[in-house]
Amino acid sequence: MIEEKVVIGKGGEYPLNGILTLPDEAEGPAAAVVMVHGSGPSDMNEKIGGCTPFKDLAAGLAERGIASVRYDKRSFAHGRKMLRAGIITVKEETIDDAVLAAELLRCDPRIDSSKVFVLGHSMGAMLAPRIDAEGGDFCGIIMMAGTLRRLEEVMLSQNQSVLESTKGFVRMIVKKQVGKLEKKFADLDGMTDEEAMSKKVGGGTTLYYFKEMAKKPAADYLRSCNKPMLIMQGARDFQVSLEKDFSLYKELLGDRAGAEFRVYENLNHAFVQAVSDNIMKAKQEYAAERHIGPQVIDDIADWIKGI
Description:
By secondary structure, the protein is of the alpha/beta class. The chain contains 13 helices and 10 strands. It is globular.
């Protein structure tokens, strides 16, 4: 494969370092993928512990003749600057840069501009349909470990799982923390935008971050989207699940022509071999170096080539 350094948003306020990965023996312009991160600050490889999902995907797709671009997330590269700028939503944090990345690919003569796809992981999967509608205009949408639930609902569900895994004094502390979080989100829909902007959840994130995202749910975009879609889920993912999340995609899109679904036994949220099913052991879950297996990458590549 060929790897070239690129800058997403070059000349703008928030330039982001990235890597364009190309197959080294492409016959003509290649199909390409824009990779969109999950929640929180993340580097271009989406590194978590010893795992680097986006780096694995880029290398694997290049071996199969497909190009990709990955880049540092804006909150990773410019977190302090974003906080000083004031109110942050997923548009500033994620969407705008993904659209710029798509434009970068389409301007490269080595890329087939009619075959640019978005691949969103976790929260990136939640946002992928919106990115497509708000300027991405992709050929197809790949959603890995996503959900149609609201972000705060997922957060509260994860915190509840942590609570259920604790005992004694630790449980009392966690229960108090969960209660505070529930209270913060309880009146979100009834708040004005200004009220939501004035209340912080943690760090520099305000309740408006969640309120703005909830106004534009992925399900609404998917209902009106007729593009090919690939929805993927690890069966041992304890951050989103088959029962609570993958099932909602099946319910909404199960009869839709062009929507395909894949489930991978024994894979976790990062699509690597699972170690534990306990959310309390999340740090250990990703600590050891592991890589996305060929089946996941084969499925993505085959799906892209079939479009």
